[in-house]
Amino acid sequence: MPKSPVARLVPKVPGGSGASRRQQYSASTKRALVDVAAELFTEHGYAATSLDAIVAGARVTKGALYHHFTGKQALFEAVFEGVESAASRTIQKALRGHRDPWDKARAGLGAFLAVVQEPAYRRIVIQEGPAVLGYERYREQEERSTFANVLEIVRSVVEAGTWELDEDMLQTFARIFFGAMSTAGETVSTDPDPVAAAQRVETAITFILMGFQSLANEGVELPTSTPAGPDTRG
Question: pTM higher than 0.85 for the full model?
């Protein structure tokens, strides 16, 4: 069985009395289909990958594929979810263990930029995801994984200052930063030199973080509302 570029996207069913042999076989079949599909989608793209090639690589029948998935798009979505979940776990791992909020933010950024350079993430999530899933479904999937990490980083950064922001304002900060990260990911993924692009993005976002850090160190309060403009009424 060929090894997927994203290892084991479908969790393995544990053995023992809690799982029957049929359950284990079914889970193994599904795992093989997702892993092989991930490899083929990454190498050839969605349109150029046939179901025949996937079942041949997984060494299962097409009937077994349809037992788990309604078709190629459903299989792609399972692959997409697996790649996004693996990326999220990588970023979460980078965030853990950092007490300093700025170190935490930089560690999360570095992990994210490393993820978007991986071939599977670049092809499946960035390049193929929006077209295959549709914009709304793509954003929904992305928010389930990446947005949660961005929100954690933003909370950490905000708490480093003396700012007291309500949940709506925290969400607003997180969504703005999330948009920047999504754009950064696309920029790095589609650049002919992703390593150089990642370095430029890291420099730019680090510069923004340094601005926040300076404001926090100086105890500067953030405005909670837009100041009213001059009264132009006659």
Answer: no
